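Regression report. Comparing outputs from two consecutive submissions.

Submission 1:
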Amino acid sequence: MELPEDVAPKARTVAELDDALTHCRACPRLVEWREEAARVKRASFADWDYWARPVTGFGPADARVLVVGLAPAAHGGNRTGRMFTGDRSGDVLVRALHDVGLASQATSVTRDDGLELLGVRFTAPVHCAPPANKPTPQERDTCRPWLERELRLMRPTLGSVVVLGAFGWQALLPALAAAGWSVPRPRPVFGHGVRVDLAPAASAPAALRALPVFGCYHVSQQNTFTGRLTPAMLRGVLAEAAHAAGLPTG
């Protein structure tokens, strides 16, 4: 079995990377869980043919803003085959993107619902649904080469990153360092509304630009139902990231 560290660096485009990623079986626990969720199903989705494979990033390969989550939900992205699609987290995020002019519609229901992200791409540090939404450190690290390669391939256009939650923040910083940006020591601490501007590393290509990275509470039900993350708070971070990347907002 080929590992992400062997396969991901060979991808010459984001499309090639996405295609290779969907065949990954590197983490036995995650493979078992994503396929078990597809067999057992949730009663309300009993008639669904679950995707039950790694879920790729979604959005244009030349996006200016990258939104980094945690991992697909067992009955969301793992069911629909598209990140932030078919669950409440996706509903909240896509509505906020639509509100600020970065998505073509306010809903994200199925892979063929017509949603287009406008200058924005979704990705995650772990591409398979984990039990209890908690990947292990080993699973995070095994999956990291996909994220590193995605960042490298997006370097010509990438203007900012929004990280949803502390897990994504901690997983992203090493990937950014591997992709050519200088991450300070000690590493910046996650917080909602935090902005860190990463300079290109000394070894990076001369054309590489500084990259603003924004922290935002995750769009989980726990955060949105309790008011820890409100729609206004989410819109504020997304609009700031869009402005930093030179994208117009509505």
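Submission 2:
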Amino acid sequence: MNLLIDDVNRVRTLTFNRPDALNAFNEALYDETTVALRAAADDPEVGVVLLTGTGRAFSAGNDLVEMQARISVRGADLAPGEHGFYGMLDALVDFPKPLICAVNGLGVGIGATILGFADLAFMSSSARLKCPFTSLGVAPEAASSYLLPRLIGRQNAAWLLMSSEWISAEEAKDMGLVWRVCAPDELLSEARRHAEVLASKPLSSLKAVKQTMLAPIRADILAAVEREKALFTELVGAAANVDALAAFADRK
């Protein structure tokens, strides 16, 4: 299974489970995560969703081997799955309950930008994050061009989105990208402890808080997704992107 699902004390933990691929998102994982988020949103027994990963990665982002194969076979067909990347983004934008991320290891691309949708983010002290868009010759994604400047400030967001450099857990906390940094063996217990505090509250009230926090910016998030999608479609398959993907495939 690409995604493990576990329920304890009204907290549903969704664990990315492609450890041999560093939990990179292939189309199956996008689809399974989308379905799981929608199901958790509709389940009255779920108060909070906690996202984490197995092995040494949170998520290595898009599965670049699969992306290269899709580009070479079908051109810039970016979402051949049932839901795909944009289906998962819709599920994240629409998710009406608290969403907590526990970054257990490296987070790359969507493995970093997904934190823009987190209500609380915890990060292992040994984890690292990177947004590799410029090294891949593509545009940003997951509304990160809007959410990250709002969350961590324009200059921090500019560095993260433009440099393709790694940032440490402490740097992520200093920027405001994550809320707490934990020792690796304490990460999940700390994230779950806070998740259970929230899950013990009335669900109607939790949803009201989230709705009122997101309502003023929801249209801006969706607009950012569309802007990024247009630029991503324009740049994917162009020379810089093709060269970067070929170099990655050669290293593999």
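Expected: both submissions complete independently.
Actual: both completed, but the second showed a warning that disappeared on reload.
Relevant detail on submission 2: The chain has one domain: 3-189+200-208+216-251.
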